[in-house]
Amino acid sequence: MKIQPLIRLLLVAVLPLLASCKGGNAHIIAEEGDTIKMKYARNISLVRHDGFTVASVRNPWDTTRVLHTYLLVPDSVELPSSLPEGTLVRTPMKRALIYSSVHNSLVSELGAIDAIKGVCDARYIHQRDLSERIASGEVVDCGIGTSPDIERIINMSPDGIMLSPFENSGTYGKVGQLGIPIIECADYMETTPLARAEWMRFYGMLFGKEDEAQKMFEATESEYNALKRSVAAASRPNVIIDRLYGQVWYVPSANSTMGTFIKDAGGENPFESYDRSGSVGLAGEEVLYRASDADIWLVRYSQTTDKTLSELAADNAIYPQFKALKEGRVFGCNTTGTYFYEEVPFHPQWLLNDLITIFHDGNGDINATRYFTKMKP
User: Fold this and answer.
1) What's the sign of the alpha-carbon dihedral 229, 233, 237, 239?
2) From the DSSP assignment, how many helices (H) and strands (E) are in the chain?
3) Beta bridge partners of 87
4) Which of 240, 235, 213, 230 is nearest to 312 (CA)?
5) Which of the chain's ends, N or C, has fewer CB atoms near its CB within 10 Å?
6) How far apart are CA 148 and CA 151, in angstroms?
């Protein structure tokens, strides 16, 4: 099968050679290759062939279809004469544009920060080394992810763009017309913490850090499962999380990532009866009716000062009716001052350790936790 020609680019002299067939029902011939087993991830498969690796991303919103197929070919070898259908990515990537602070953090941790040449939503990036490179202009700030600066992207000439897809995201507008490989990072659609974390193995391949990513994942898996086993026979407190956003309170369903975190940490989720993945939007009164007697309340928020119990109680008239608030068993994670969103996707064991400490340490003395602290009066 021949590689499709490049889409003509305006204002660009050179862009990486690629094939830009994006997946609907792309067929991959995997019989001749060696499948790289994924233990937890369900939305990605990897098959190694002679001279290239096929990475197939399943459509999380329609699991009968393929969202995107990638052909990873080392730039140290000649392009194979025959390749299956898919988007060609020469590895390791050396000039990546990465939209999300989550993936920027991972790539940096894997030792490939030099390959990050552009970012979106720079205001959410807290990592010092990368922030300094953005400030100096070494890394290009391409604006906000929902409407990036196309001229800056063209000028930086990336060899790949990493972004998070969403349902019916289509071809990504002008960005999708540039002829640059778009890596659709659908890890966030996995339903368990270790499944999402396992995507680091794919990202490691993109940057020539496959061995580093494998070791990091094995350490993550080992620590997570050891923590999970440590509370298998412990008492299980009822736990609620977050709060109203406008008129809706998004609670974790049975098969959501946060629902799995609560269960693996030895807690009970009052909304376990919702047998689905993702969050469920409920009215505040419904949450109060079903979970007013919850033993522990976890609240994620973002503000310049740490939230207090009295401040939380004043936020909404229903909050003081929860047992956890009455008894002072509320634990807050101020995401302004922590790297919660950057770290947890690929280091779920760190959050699990927090939750186990909170759920099973009696009076909630959690000075050693990473993200959550007990709210003061």
Assistant:
1) positive
2) 12, 17
3) 20, 70
4) 240
5) C
6) 9
Q: Which amino acid is located at 315 in the chain?
A: D
Instruction: Please name the residue that has the structure tokens 């469920």.
Output: 280
Q: How confident is the model at residue 366 (pLDDT cuts 50, 70, 90)?
A: low
Q: Which whole-number Å values give the CA distances from 241 to 29, 210, 231, 298, in the listed order?
A: 44, 35, 20, 5
Q: Which helix (H) or strand (E) holds 258?
A: helix 257-264
Q: Hey, how many other C-beta atoms are within 10 angstroms of the C-beta on 301?
A: 16
How many whole angstroms separate alpha carbon 200 and alpha carbon 211? 11
C-beta neighbour count of 76 within 10 angstroms: 9
Q: What per-residue confidence (pLDDT) applies to 28?
A: 40
Per-residue model confidence (pLDDT) at position 170 = 75
Of 15, 302, 325, 282, residue with least CA distance to 153:
15
Report d(CA 157, CA 152) in Å as an integer.
9
Task: Look at residue 297 in the predicted model and tell me its pLDDT.
Answer: 98
Segment holding 163, helix H or strand E: strand 160-163
At 359 the three-state DSSP class reads helix
Lowest mean pLDDT of 156-170, 308-322, 324-338, 352-366, name the range.
352-366
Q: How far apart are alpha carbons 309 and 291 in whole angstroms? A: 18
Q: How many residues does the chain have?
A: 377
Question: Can you list the pairs that 37-41 forms with residues at least 24 positions away whose Cβ atoms lie under 8 Å?
Answer: 38/198, 38/201, 39/194, 39/198, 39/221, 40/190, 40/192, 40/194, 40/195, 40/197, 40/198, 41/187, 41/190, 41/195, 41/196, 41/198, 41/199
Residue 186: name the closest of 260, 81, 103 by CA. Answer: 103
For the stretch 167-191, pLDDT in tens is: 777 788 899 999 999 999 999 999 9
Query: pLDDT band for position 367 (50/70/90)?
Result: low
Which of 48, 70, 44 has its CA nearest to residue 57? 44
pLDDT of residue 324: 98
Q: Where are the beta strands (DSSP E) in 37-101?
A: 44-49, 52-58, 66-74, 87-91, 96-98
Query: Poorest-confidence range of 31-45, 108-122, 355-369?
Result: 355-369
Q: What is the pTM of this model?
A: 0.88
What are the distances in angstroms from CA 133 to CA 105, 114, 136, 141, 149? Answer: 14, 10, 5, 10, 18
